[in-house]
């Protein structure tokens, strides 16, 4: 069993710059949790605090009930995979992987067997004598992963490991890493700013902003039921329309829907796939651009007040630039003062 427990952890740099602000998080045995957020949200700092590369200003970090808050990285049961690979270019693959085991004075036969085993695990069997500068970016990242796994850590830490790779390689590697993580059942904390990586890999996603947790939940919940406007706008594409609720109805010059909340200003949030369009001569919205992706179409619209919206349609054929359309939200949510007020029964 390998469990990670983060309790009220904060990190303040220099003259009062708060990078992590009282974050608490439990990661269960074998779970892959993704820290997701924009640059400066505190996700990488939190990961470095777990790995021991930074010391928290306050709070505690425990692994399997043992307090590791003040332990240096080499004394923690964690393995870190960096974005930059951090491989030793003067060593071949074997020596890169064997280095940590040699420091632990493991027998030569055991080192050889474990190097061979972990190379096969990451799909690099027979690469042990290659120099690291002879490898492609994807192969180097596999070696970096193997170097962390060979020490059999309780917690695997991944800091945007695919950020420097091209899209196709990134997609393939993240599938391979997820398969390895599931096979080993290793508890993993993964940092990324890519929504697709988080949605496709994580058991749970922790969305961070300004050093704080905005929402932590399963990927499908984060997408379909965001609790704040930030999460709604950061995960996937979301249309926002500012208006008012009057007598149980959302009112905007170009859009109106029933909304059983108290009167006052609100922001309507609707996903492109939940925004239906109906062509009409006196429609409230105007088509700006239509993109045909083959399997579906994406219609860019603008309202009379300049608000820009997107609608995902099955076929782009009925829509042309300059055409007027009516808006028919099938599902939506409403926010006021950074708090979700309402979610329709099928809201994104």
TrEMBL record:
InterPro entries per UniProt: AAA+_ATPase, ABC_SmlMolc_Importer, ABC_transporter-like_ATP-bd, ABC_transporter-like_CS, Mo/tungstate-bd_C_term_dom, NA-bd_OB-fold, P-loop_NTPase, Transp-assoc_OB_typ2
TM helices/strands, residue ranges: none
PROSITE patterns: ABC_TRANSPORTER_1, ABC_TRANSPORTER_2
Superkingdom of origin organism: Bacteria
UniProt keyword annotations, A-Z: ATP-binding, Nucleotide-binding, Transport
Domain ABC transporter: 4-235
Family of the protein in this entry: Belongs to the ABC transporter superfamily.
Protein name: ABC transporter
């Amino acid at each position: 069993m390998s469990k990670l427990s983060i309790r009220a952890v904060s990190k303040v740099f220099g003259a009062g710059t708060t990078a992590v602000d009282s974050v608490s998080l439990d990661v269960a045995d074998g779970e892959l949790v993704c820290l997701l957020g924009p640059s400066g949200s505190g996700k990488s700092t939190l990961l470095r605090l777990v790995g021991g590369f930074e010391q928290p200003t306050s709070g505690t970090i425990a692994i399997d009930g043992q307090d590791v808050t003040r332990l240096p990285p080499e004394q923690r049961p964690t393995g870190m995979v960096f974005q930059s690979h951090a491989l030793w270019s003067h060593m071949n693959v074997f020596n890169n992987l064997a280095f940590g085991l040699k420091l632990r004075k493991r027998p030569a036969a055991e080192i050889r067997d474990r190097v061979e085993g972990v190379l096969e695990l990451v799909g690099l069997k027979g690469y042990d004598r290659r120099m690291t500068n002879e490898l492609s970016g994807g192969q180097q990242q596999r070696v970096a992963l193997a170097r962390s796994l060979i020490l059999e850590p309780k917690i695997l830490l991944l800091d945007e490991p695919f950020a420097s790779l091209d899209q196709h390689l990134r997609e393939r590697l993240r599938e391979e890493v997820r398969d390895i993580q599931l096979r080993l059942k290793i508890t993993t904390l993964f940092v990324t700013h890519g929504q697709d990586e988080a949605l496709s890999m994580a058991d749970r996603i922790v969305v961070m902003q300004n050093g704080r947790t905005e929402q932590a939940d399963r990927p499908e919940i984060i997408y379909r039921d965001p609790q704040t406007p930030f999460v709604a706008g950061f995960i996937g594409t979301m249309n926002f329309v500012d208006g008012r609720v009057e007598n149980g109805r959302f009112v905007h010059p170009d859009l109106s829907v029933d909304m059983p909340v108290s009167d006052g200003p609100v922001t309507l949030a609707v996903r492109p796939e939940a925004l239906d369009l109906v062509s009409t001569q006196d429609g409230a919205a105007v088509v700006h651009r239509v993109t045909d992706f083959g399997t579906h179409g994406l219609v860019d619209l603008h309202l009379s007040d300049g608000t820009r919206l997107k609608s995902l349609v099955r076929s782009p054929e009925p829509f042309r630039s300059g055409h007027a359309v009516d808006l028919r939200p099938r599902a939506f949510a409403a926010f006021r003062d950074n708090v979700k007020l309402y979610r329709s029964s099928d809201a994104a």
